[in-house]
Fold this protein.
Amino acid sequence: MRQNNENFPTQIARIPENQKITPDYQGSIFAKTQFFGKNKVTVAFDWIEFTAIQNPDKTDFLASDRFQVKFMDHGTQYFIEMAEIFHLPAGSGEWIKCASLEIKPRVHFINQNIVKIKLENRYCYQESPDQFINDLLQDLKLTFKNYTRIDTCCDFQKIATGEMIQDMLLKFSSKKYVMKGKSMQVFHRTKDITGIKFGKRESGCSITMYNKSLEMRTKGDKRHIRELWAAAAFDKDHETYRLEFSEKKNLLNLFDNESGEVQESHCDISYIKNVERNFKYLYKKHFNAAIFCAGVRFSRMEKINILDIEQTAIVSKRLCEKKQANNYIKAHIKRTFEDATAYDLAGDALKASGLYEYIQDELIKFDLHEWFNKKFPMYQIYCGEMTVGDHLSNRKYLSHQLTQSGLNLN
């Protein structure tokens, strides 16, 4: 049972007993059916998960004409409470589960007004999922924060290289084909390969290529995907394979080099408005495969383009002035800080003060204050009118004489 907050009581929305709730989805299928080169494919989102902010000044989760919330009697690993969201499609009299809702983070250092919402799989395949999310947030009085996971997929029965898909998977598993910069995990079933995963699920973007027909036969059929394949006129006697990119939270903006327009980021609700563009961007950025050649650098190996997708003009960039830090920058700051503390302990406050000021500038330039506080929780870098050396050892600093200028600070 949901407990009311003493400061901001929240009314619980309940589904009326006389209203039917059905798990079956009878809506239209809106995912894209198109051609990449000569190959017929379907492109769709398969997982959409995002966070939002509750407004503590309003009563949230009230029933509306389109959405209702039903609270569960348990929470999740990371949130204290969990609920199911039901949707009433236009012209329908049946309530359909459209999303799950997680409320109240268990850890207190996270904003307690943050909630996490995951759309049901069937609702990821609609024409405008961003508009649906906008309507959902508006009715529940929530403010969009950012997408935390987006899976974008492409289903196909043939590939542009002309070889059998199973042969291509065998070449990847035997490392005749290689993927740049990603670990590989191969899944087998008797003599066949059922799928290959490149990269780790918790990384920024992982890639999975697998037999979708087999998965649906063994793990449960999905009517909306079957209807999508039928609309694309896929051959029922042939296996359908899927190439799927799983994105995690990304704060970089998408930028069109040809038009000069900013294309959104994961903090923009409209990031998912164009599934075809998103998939092409992910394919060209992350699917870096080539024919292996011993003793040859990857950049000089012959590349593989299994879906015949042309080069996209979309790139990811940080559009603010702050530069991206790498491990070299962090290691340099760490060594400089160790030198500064050594000078400070030795009584040379002038040198220590200069190094502290340099560290402060680097932390601002690369936006690394959060990393520094975690790395050195027992120290603080102050920023004010005086230098850090002034704050830490003001008397020692004032006792130094600047011999080059001939000034005496005493």
In short: The chain is about 25% helix and 30% strand.
